[in-house]
Design brief:
nine-stranded mixed beta sheet, 9 helices, alpha/beta
Length: 383
Amino acid sequence: MSSLLDDSLVIVLAGGAGERLFPLTKDRAKPAVYFGGPYRIIDFVLSNCINSGLRRLFIATPYKSLSLNRHIRMGWSVVSEELGEFIEILPPQKRIGEQWYQGTADAVYQNLYSIIRENPRYLIVLSGDHVYKMDYSRMLRFHQERGAAATLAAIEEPIADASRFGIVAINEYEQVTGFLEKPKNPPSIPGSPDFVLASMGVYIFDTDVLVSALEADASQATSHDFGKDIIPALIHQVPVFAYRFSDENKKASKYWRDIGTLDAYFEANLDLCHVNPEFNLYDPEWPLRTYQPQAPPAKFVFAEQGRRCGQALDSVISPGCIISGSTISGSVLCPNVRVHSFCHIEDCILMPGVRVGRHARIRRAIINRDVLIPRAALIGYNE
């Protein structure tokens, strides 16, 4: 297994504009959006890589990447350059032409110079804006044992939801026979007529096969996308297999989320406040890394029952937060949030540095970082 990992290189595509998450993506790339308190969305795929033993990573960042670059620099200097390990950011460099990244495949194609210099046998292509836990080394072993030239990870989804995903058609040997983008009449899983296999945006390629495919795609007028162009073309040329998602989250249902909309983002965060949330942040066997600011412990002050009492109920409270004589319920507070007295905050997400003035009441709201909520503000009570 160690030789397989040593022969592998990862490129994380962290450049989606995240238009459906606007205005959270007004000043930052989607992978840099906060999730679950101190984390950023990209932390989950990077933690998967480190936990899988993959320590040669490129991160392609074309879109509003300042906060993401700073986060990577401050929180992910965890590998040893002396051992040939790295986590390296790849901004657009116009090595191929004058255009920026034109699609997921083009983002890899424009960085072939950097990839080929590392001489990997296998290239693992990941999306930086999904939340899940996965051991990529298992998928890598599957790729080798099947003699695949390309392998994509897939998760079972109800056939009624197929129009939201790229759907993979397979035969009884797990070999991919077709790939359809958001189809109206999707092919079901053999033996499971009520389910389809949805692509997760996780790919493993033999590097020489991918280089040839990218060069061929670059010469054509396509959308330069892995799901729409590269995979459908390779299916008819080389063995392409589907790997069933093996979830390290250790729950009854498999957890993989594309936090693509404000509603999905809101609900996925608030689920973390439940007694038994769908996504487990607290598993010591699968640690989740991030940049942790140098902040003191969270503090709750004033215990004047019936008048003002600093308390948090069914909530996630990050370091540096001070709850001063207010009630927090079912909410996620990122680091260094300050809530002054006599406030009531219910089912909210407060990003780092938020300040809430006295007597404010906030319900079912997302408050962006460093926002000052004025005294006696009322948010979320009058449509």
